[in-house]
């Protein structure tokens, strides 16, 4: 966050901080002019090749408003925007605009709408499901420079930020007042609040505090047709439908978040972080079940398997038990006395759990290191394999053992190594499927294996994504998790908000025209020539 | 009013009516006036696996029934839904988005609802969200149902996340000399590391702070809380404590002839708002983010509506007669309208009420 | 990341480049560590983006000329390496890529001239001294000169210290504990000869015999990092011959030179000297590392308390992983209060010839670093690299704070006791 100013540069009114209206009879006036044309839900209009021909006039318009160094159109400028954290796919965008404030976003969105050009918002491009993959011939709206804190109220424990503010910068900004922002995705030092909002991102500490949606109080956004909307406010409480909550996790399909109000929490007084080593994954899983059953409510419970331990240890040297079949991290947090009282209870459980080594973080630095190892695990697996798919699925907590055994079986059957890192307390699995893209057919095998894991999650009554979103990657699995009526409803909601499907086309929901013609391989967008394999 | 017993009956009803307005426990009459269908009989626990820490129930299930069942397994709903004694149901609680004093620590009902099954305006039964504690697949319809007052769908089944119940609790009542001291103390407590469960402020400048957790740590924590602000205080425990919080949760303080209104607040809005209300009308919960207003029957509702709007506060009328339960300033009408269009194209759930 | 780089066709370093690309998983963990990304806020100017661009060029998907502006803007500070959980050897990639592209790229006349001037003067003590004098003369006319040249001139001190010859052998004071060879460096020796003098004094007081092999030359880092790989290989070979074997370590006092010598195996990959290069590299240590391992005799306290900010030179912290030893040593000096600079892992913008080639970014980074130091209310600065010293001193001065900026070794030498316990 290189520029931190405490005032909004946006002239539009800030969330929940309106200047009081003059008194007078308060009526519920129908607010918007534009509503009239959106009443009709137009027939399905899907991605068309003519997007490309629409791009040129749009770019001409943009040139009049943006300097050349903020409107990127050269091949070398566009190439680095072709992928996000899911490198199996890349798409060459038609252009990238580096916006600097909310009014610029609104301008660009309105122009896109006018010209019928699809756009994709991009924070830091760390999505693991292809969320920020561009649309061919479409525009990428890069928000990373919009990284100002607009307002900060330590006494109310709220902060208003622009979408490009990096997750960890929020906690950094408020640390001086003993506060922090709870959702802590492993990508926290990199990913943006805008991306977190789009994906309802989680993290190790969701167990106790919930995901992004539970910490977003208000959102100002621009709809894909350029209309501005404010949702929620600055209160930790809501009255009326939780519209801000509904916006979170919509994967950018409802438009672009311009300002976000976040809830802050007081920093826990004490942490007690235990790293336990096991000679089997089952024992670690059972230990989690025992902790849960004991009535303790740890801040986090994370498991890593042998491969993941190896990779992290190479990357971070946090003193992980290399050679162990599984490592379990359990963290208690809270007031000094409470944690002190819980430690013996946790100790007893861990002793009984068959851990062959128990290590307690001795200092804040030691704790940081243990977490650094855990949080670097995904990327560290890059040391073990040139390519891999990070999967993300959820199973009921009591069926974790069953799920892990199944993953192992599948791994053996496909002959592909799978590393496991997961939020054990939540039943949120992250199997990392290792493959070598240079070997003919391995990517396809890896995708099949990934698909089987997702189907298992559905079968066990879980979800196909706990935090990484559907994106491009799981497009074809969403209809397996929900029924036809549910899919239709989601599509309908999308249609009322974005009938032209300009915002994040090809993510989360298949284009209306593609519905019904999904197949399992190749990817529907691939066959349509919209995306290509790297 | 028709009392339905099954979801099939409900979908049938919705398909065949021009207007659908639901009631269950009837404890929040301002939100269920002129109801034409009752869900009280759509009741019962569908699935409760205590090791999963989730529970799935029918919408008309009384809160009391759920709480008793959870208590047997030493679990609870941390958002502390109000009006359980009065007969509130889980569906009504979610539809009105009501949380009690306990929301201070772990969040409100929005933070505990995982999945819903509901009937759309076209009489389609859909199931969204999930039964697991973490899910990022698809739009978050459960959130939309929270506080949605049935305007986006009629819930039939809900899955909630539950927590392990604390071993023990105590409440410290802190007496403050005046309102500004009381507010200041409350905000300091809210930002402290004392990890309180509830933090309320009543109209006599009395703060009620509740501590919950391990038995063996509790007394030390209470002592620290007492020292924290060094003002006159009293520790309450046992039956007395239970009774105190029950009285709060049942709004026993609201005098006869008054209407109850909920208001979402940011703490900085409190002092100016108080000065525009009659003395004693506002009680504050959740460290200053949730307010309850008792509004005299005889004063026009529009007046409160106007005051709240002036202060940019969204309000929700709970009891009494109102033109609309949503009063004050509500954001996001453009979004709500579009959602209605998709979920209830014929406006069966909203007519003739304005959508906000 | 999957790629189709024809590594075999790209010479001995092809594999190193392919390996770096292959181990990048595009996670973006390097973004917050990259100064150019933080300043410019665009993906092309991030490590991840540059890896993508270099990959595309090597795969022949993208014309080299298109990618060069962004590759050129890389500071080579290696801030991205420790930030990368996947262990991408970014330094190997960028250095090799620069060498690879140098043969293919076309430069403007002015560019070529600048480049030659720099490459033919900076690494040679005598030529540099001569050029610097001329340069100072020219600075009177600097408003007329192109921005890049005037920027270079601004870096030169108002007056050059007199030229100094280092003794070939300096005996240990007291019983001899070790024998080391010192890399004298080039620009540093002209601009700040007191640093090596301090190092020799400090070492000898600590019972270390110091030899300065007369046949040594420039370490070659400057050439290597600007893509002049032949010059770099020559420099490396020269030093391989110059440094004796009967020593405990080769000691460096400039971070850039130290990390340069650690790269000899990469530069000489696939040549006969590769094994020898490994041997020399493994003996090479920054003077602070050597001293910390040896255990210093002791330091006298400063006369008055002083807040000193320690700045991590990139080629020490990221290039050689040296972060703690200089701090430990400085903290042994009584009355010296060591303070940490916010965002300490960030480059100051000096980065070899970067100041000359990318003045805007260099200036922005210099200003940020100065502001960060000012925020600590430090009264003085310690750092381990001559380039950083000049950059920081200049930008602190621009910010109106003329703080003393000294090499860590100068601070240590000033307070050093000898084996007999005297100063
Ligand atoms: C190594 C690694 C570890 C990770 N760990 C976790 C983890 O622990 N938990 C977790 O949940 N995720 C994790 N992720 C996934 C990823 O970091 C998150 O999804 C993150 O929220 C993405 O943020 P971003 O800024 O990179 O967004 P991007 O990738 O740039 O964008 C993500 C999506 O958000 C949309 N978007 C961005 N900004 C806005 C906006 N302002 N308004 C509307 N839509 C917007 C984009 O269009 C896109 O669809 C991890 C990723 C990596 C690479
Ligand atoms: S941190 Fe490493 S693996 Fe991740 S993008 Fe940067 S270089 Fe690639
Ligand atoms: S070497 Fe420095 S400037 Fe270059 S990519 Fe890495 S961090 Fe960025």
What would you say this structure looks like, in words?
- The complex is a heterotrimer of chains A (534), B (356) and C (423).
- Helices cover 32% and strands 18% of the residues of chain A.
- Chain A is an alpha+beta fold.
- Chain A has four domains: 12-142, Uridine Diphospho-n-acetylenolpyruvylglucosamine Reductase, domain 2, CATH 3.30.43; 149-266, Uridine Diphospho-n-acetylenolpyruvylglucosamine Reductase, domain 3 (2-Layer Sandwich), CATH 3.30.465.10; 270-459, FAD-linked oxidases, C-terminal domain (Vanillyl-alcohol Oxidase, Chain A, domain 3); 475-527, no CATH class.
- In chain A, strands 16-13-15-14-19-21-17 form a seven-stranded antiparallel β-sheet, with helices on both faces. A five-stranded antiparallel β-sheet of chain A has the order 6-7-11-9-10.
- Chain B folds into three domains: 2-164, Uridine Diphospho-n-acetylenolpyruvylglucosamine Reductase, domain 3 (2-Layer Sandwich); 168-249, 2-Layer Sandwich (Alpha-Beta Plaits); 258-323, 2-Layer Sandwich (Alpha-Beta Plaits).
- Chain B has helices spanning 7-16, 63-72, 90-96, 103-106, 141-145, 179-191, 215-229, 238-249, 270-276, 301-310, 333-343; strands spanning 2-3, 22-23, 37-38, 45-49, 54-58, 75-76, 113-119, 125-129, 154-161, 163-164, 168-175, 198-201, 206-213, 233-236, 258-264, 282-285, 290-296, 314-317, 326-328.
- Chain B has a five-stranded antiparallel β-sheet. Chain B has a five-stranded antiparallel β-sheet with strand order 16-17-15-18-19.
- The mean pLDDT of chain B is 94.
- The relative contact order of chain C is 0.11.
- Chain C has 423 residues and is an alpha/beta fold.
- Among the domains of chain C are: 7-102, Orthogonal Bundle (Fumarate Reductase Iron-sulfur Protein, Chain B, domain 2), CATH 1.10.1060.10; 298-422, AF0625-like (Rossmann fold, 3-Layer(aba) Sandwich), CATH 3.40.50.
- The N and C termini of chain C lie far apart (57 Å).
- In chain C, the strands form two sheets. In chain C, strands 1-3-2-4-5 form a five-stranded mixed β-sheet. Chain C has a four-stranded parallel β-sheet with strand order 7-6-8-9, with helices on both faces.
- Chains A and C meet through helix 3, helix 10 and helix 13 of A and helix 3 and helix 4 of C.
- Residues 84-85, 120-128, 131-132, 143, 163, 185-187, 191-192, 194-196, 198-199, 201-203, 251-252, 256-257, 378-379, 467-468, 504, 507 of chain A line the site of flavin-adenine dinucleotide (FAD).
- Chain A: Residues 89-267 form the FAD-binding PCMH-type domain.
- Chain A: Keywords: FAD, Flavoprotein, Oxidoreductase.
- Chain A: Residues 513-534 are annotated as: Disordered.
- Chain A: It comes from Adhaeretor mobilis.
- Chain A: This is Putative FAD-linked oxidoreductase.
- Chain B: It is an enzyme of class 1 (oxidoreductase).
């Amino acid at each position: 966050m290189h520029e931190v100013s405490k005032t909004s540069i946006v002239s539009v009114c800030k969330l929940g901080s309106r200047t009081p209206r003059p008194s007078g009879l308060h009526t519920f006036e129908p607010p918007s002019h534009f509503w009239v044309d959106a009443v009709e839900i137009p027939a399905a209009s899907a991605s068309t090749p003519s997007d490309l021909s629409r791009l040129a006039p749009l770019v001409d318009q943009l040139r009049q408003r943006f300097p050349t160094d903020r409107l990127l159109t050269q091949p070398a400028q566009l190439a680095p925007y072709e992928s996000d954290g899911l490198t199996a796919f890349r798409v060459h965008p038609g252009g990238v605009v580096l916006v600097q404030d909310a009014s610029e976003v609104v301008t660009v969105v309105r122009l896109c709408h006018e010209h019928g050009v699809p756009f994709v918002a991009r924070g830091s491009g760390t999505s693991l499901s292809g969320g920020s993959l561009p649309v061919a011939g479409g525009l990428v709206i890069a928000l990373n420079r919009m990284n100002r804190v607009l307002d900060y109220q330590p006494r109310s424990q709220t902060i208003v930020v622009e979408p490009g503010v990096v997750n960890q910068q929020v906690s950094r900004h408020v640390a001086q007042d003993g506060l922090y922002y709870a959702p802590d995705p492993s990508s926290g030092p990199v990913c943006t609040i805008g991306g977190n909002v789009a994906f309802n991102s989680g993290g190790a500490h969701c167990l106790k505090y919930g995901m992004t949606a539970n910490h977003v109080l208000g959102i100002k956004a621009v709809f894909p047709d350029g209309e501005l909307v404010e949702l929620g406010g600055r209160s930790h409480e809501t009255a009326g439908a939780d519209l801000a909550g509904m916006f979170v996790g919509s994967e950018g399909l409802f438009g672009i978040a311009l300002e976000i109000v976040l809830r802050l929490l007081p920093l826990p007084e004490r942490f007690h972080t235990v790293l336990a080593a096991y000679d089997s994954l089952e024992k670690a899983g059972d230990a989690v079940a025992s902790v849960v059953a004991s009535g303790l409510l740890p801040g986090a419970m994370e498991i890593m398997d042998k491969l993941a331990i190896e990779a992290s240890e190479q990357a971070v040297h946090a003193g992980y038990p290399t050679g162990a079949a599984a490592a379990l991290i359990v963290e208690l947090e809270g007031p000094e006395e409470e944690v002190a009282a819980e430690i013996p209870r946790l100790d007893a459980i861990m002793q009984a759990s068959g851990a062959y080594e128990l290590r307690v973080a001795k200092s804040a630095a030691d704790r940081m290191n243990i977490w650094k190892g855990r949080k670097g695990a995904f990327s560290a697996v890059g040391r073990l394999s040139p390519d891999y798919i990070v999967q993300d699925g959820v199973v009921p907590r009591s069926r974790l053992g069953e799920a892990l055994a199944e993953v192992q079986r599948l791994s053996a059957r496909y002959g592909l190594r799978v590393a496991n890192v997961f939020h054990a307390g939540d039943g949120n699995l992250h199997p990392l499927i290792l493959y070598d893209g240079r070997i003919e057919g391995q990517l396809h095998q890896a995708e099949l294996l990934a698909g089987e894991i997702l189907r298992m999650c559905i079968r066990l009554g879980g979800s196909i994504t706990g935090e990484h979103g559907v994106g491009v990657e799981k497009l074809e699995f969403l209809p397996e998790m929900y029924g036809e009526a549910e899919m239709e409803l989601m599509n309908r909601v999308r249609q009322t908000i974005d009938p032209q499907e300009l915002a994040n086309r090809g993510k989360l929901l298949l284009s209306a025209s593609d519905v019904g013609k999904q197949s399992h391989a190749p990817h529907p967008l691939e066959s349509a020539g919209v995306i290509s394999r790297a | 009013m028709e009392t339905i017993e099954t979801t099939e009956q409900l979908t049938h009803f919705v398909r065949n009516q021009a207007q659908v307005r639901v009631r269950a426990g009837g404890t929040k009459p301002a939100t269920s006036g002129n109801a034409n269908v009752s869900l009280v009989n759509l009741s019962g626990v569908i699935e409760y696996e205590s090791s999963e820490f989730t529970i799935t129930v029918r919408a008309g299930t009384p809160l009391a029934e759920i709480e008793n069942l959870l208590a047997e397994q030493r679990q609870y709903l941390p958002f502390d839904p109000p009006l359980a004694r009065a007969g509130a149901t889980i569906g009504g609680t979610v539809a009105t988005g009501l949380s009690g004093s306990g929301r201070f620590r772990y969040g409100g009902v929005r933070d505990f609802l995982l999945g819903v099954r509901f009937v759309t305006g076209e009489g389609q039964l859909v199931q969204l969200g999930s039964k697991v504690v973490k899910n990022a697949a698809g739009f978050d319809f459960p959130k939309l149902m929270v506080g949605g007052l049935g305007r986006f769908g009629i819930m039939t089944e809900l899955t909630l996340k539950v927590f392990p119940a604390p071993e023990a609790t105590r409440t410290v009542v802190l007496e403050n000399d005046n309102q500004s001291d009381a507010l200041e103390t409350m905000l300091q407590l809210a930002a402290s590391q004392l990890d309180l469960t509830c933090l309320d402020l009543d109209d006599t400048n009395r703060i009620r702070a509740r501590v919950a957790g391990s038995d063996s740590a509790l007394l030390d924590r209470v002592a620290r809380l007492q020292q924290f602000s060094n003002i006159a205080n009293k520790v309450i425990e046992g039956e007395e404590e239970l009774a105190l919080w029950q009285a709060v949760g049942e709004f026993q303080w609201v005098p006869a002839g008054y209407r109850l209104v909920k208001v979402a607040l940011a703490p900085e809005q409190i002092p100016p708002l108080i000065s525009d209300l009659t003395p004693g009308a506002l009680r504050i919960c959740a460290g200053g983010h949730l307010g309850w207003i008792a509004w005299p029957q005889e004063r026009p509702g529009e007046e409160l509506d106007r005051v709240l709007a002036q202060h940019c506060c969204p309000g929700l009328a709970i009891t009494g007669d109102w033109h609309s339960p949503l009063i004050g300033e509500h954001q996001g009408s453009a979004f709500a309208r579009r959602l209605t269009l998709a979920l209830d194209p014929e406006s069966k759930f909203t007519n003739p009420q304005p959508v906000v | 990341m999957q790629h189709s780089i024809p590594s075999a066709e790209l010479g001995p370093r092809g594999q190193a480049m392919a390996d770096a690309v292959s181990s990048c998983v595009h996670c973006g963990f390097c973004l917050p560590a990259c100064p150019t990304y933080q300043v410019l806020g665009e993906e092309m100017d991030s490590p991840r983006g540059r890896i993508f661009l270099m990959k595309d060029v090597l795969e022949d998907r993208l014309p080299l000329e298109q990618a060069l502006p962004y590759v050129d803007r890389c500071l080579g500070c290696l801030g991205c390496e420790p930030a990368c959980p996947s262990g991408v050897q970014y330094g190997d990639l960028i250095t090799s890529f620069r060498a690879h592209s140098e043969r293919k790229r076309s430069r403007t006349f002015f560019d070529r001239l600048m480049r030659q001037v720099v490459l033919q003067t900076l690494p040679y003590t005598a030529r540099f001294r001569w050029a610097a004098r001329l340069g100072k003369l020219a600075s009177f006319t600097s408003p007329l000169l192109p921005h890049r040249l005037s920027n270079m001139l601004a870096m030169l001190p108002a007056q050059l210290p007199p030229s100094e010859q280092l003794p070939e052998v300096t005996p240990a004071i007291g019983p001899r504990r070790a024998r080391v060879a010192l890399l004298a460096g080039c620009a540093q020796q002209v601009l700040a000869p007191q640093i090596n003098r301090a190092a020799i004094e400090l070492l000898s007081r600590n019972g270390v015999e110091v030899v300065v092999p007369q046949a040594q030359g420039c370490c070659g880092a400057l050439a290597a990092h600007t893509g002049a790989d032949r010059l770099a290989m020559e420099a490396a070979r020269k030093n391989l011959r110059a440094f004796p074997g009967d020593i405990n370590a080769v000691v460096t006092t400039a971070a850039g030179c130290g990390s340069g010598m650690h790269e000899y195996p990469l530069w000489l990959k696939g040549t006969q000297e590769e094994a020898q290069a490994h041997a020399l590299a493994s003996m090479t240590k920054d003077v602070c590392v050597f001293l910390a391992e040896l255990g210093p005799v002791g330091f006298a306290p400063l006369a008055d308390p002083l807040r000193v900010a320690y700045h991590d030179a990139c080629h020490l912290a990221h290039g050689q992983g040296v972060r703690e030893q200089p701090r430990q040593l400085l903290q042994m000096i009584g009355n010296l209060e060591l303070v940490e600079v916010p965002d300490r892992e960030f480059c100051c913008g000096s980065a070899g010839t970067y100041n000359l080639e990318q003045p805007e970014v260099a200036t922005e980074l210099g200003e940020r670093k100065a502001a960060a130091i000012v925020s600590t209310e430090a009264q003085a600065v310690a750092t381990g690299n001559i380039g950083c010293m000049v950059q920081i001193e200049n930008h602190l001065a621009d910010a109106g704070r003329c703080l003393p900026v000294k090499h860590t070794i100068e601070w240590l030498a000033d307070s050093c006791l000898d084996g007999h316990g005297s100063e």
